[in-house]
Design a protein that fits this description.
single chain, 224 residues, alpha/beta, Arc Repressor Mutant, subunit A, five-stranded parallel β-sheet, four-stranded antiparallel β-sheet
């Protein structure tokens, strides 16, 4: 999953970005509102973590312009302002959640997971495909009751495919959601990671869950 973090306090921005990357998210980072608006319009983010007091363009304006342009990306607002009026303003403009600084990392992490579940119309923290179970809170997976050892990137790919189960997902879509704009990746990186996943969740099990649609992409499904 790919997240935009827009925060102008350098140390806090790095802390948030690094924490999200450690949890397996692809993260783009900006420290001004103009760039946040531009990135939010051109990239298919799964979530935007947005400070309201940004230079060049404030967070309220970013939210307004993104919504006017038709972008429905979930937005979590960050601010040192804890007044009710500020929270109401952000939510009325189209923000999905609101977190007052200072905040505990665990709370931000939980809110990101929650907002992504809502974005995918997922009511539970567990995703299931046949005998494959994915725990989006613990970032873990089990097949036929057996724990599957996944790297952060492998887990992110598996979760993304699970959110889109029974749908063909193109290589471009996968790349855009799992790698940020600064990642230096080869042209076949998606195929490489699909191969890693197949070895871990399909090689010793039936039915096979990862399917290739030639010229189109990949699909996670219990159906052949």
């Amino acid at each position: 999953m790919r997240i935009l973090v827009a925060e102008d306090h350098p140390s806090l921005a790095r802390t948030i970005a690094n924490g999200l990357r450690e949890e397996g998210y692809a993260v783009d980072l900006t420290m001004d509102g103009e760039e946040a608006l531009h990135l939010g319009k051109v990239n298919p983010y799964d979530c935007i973590v947005l400070d309201l007091m940004l230079p060049k363009r404030d967070g309220w304006s970013v939210i307004t312009q993104l919504r006017r342009s038709g972008k429905d990306t979930p937005i979590i607002c960050l601010t040192a302002r804890d007044g009710v009026d500020d929270r109401v303003k952000g939510l009325d403009l189209g923000a999905d959640d609101y977190l007052v600084k200072p905040f505990a990392w665990e709370e931000l992490s939980a809110r990101v997971r929650s907002i992504m579940r809502r974005g995918h119309q997922q009511t539970s923290s567990t995703l299931s495909v046949a005998d494959l179970e994915i725990d989006t809170a613990k970032k873990s997976a089990r097949r036929a009751g057996k724990a599957v050892d996944l790297s952060a990137r492998e887990y992110s790919l598996l979760e993304y495919l699970a959110h889109r189960q029974n749908q063909v997902v193109s290589r471009t879509e996968i790349w855009e959601h799992l790698w940020d704009e600064h990642d230096e990746v080869s042209s076949n990186v998606v195929d490489v990671y699909i191969g890693y996943l197949r070895n871990k969740i399909d090689k010793e099990f039936d039915p096979k869950l990862i399917h290739t649609r030639r010229g189109q992409g990949y699909m996670l499904s219990a159906e052949p």
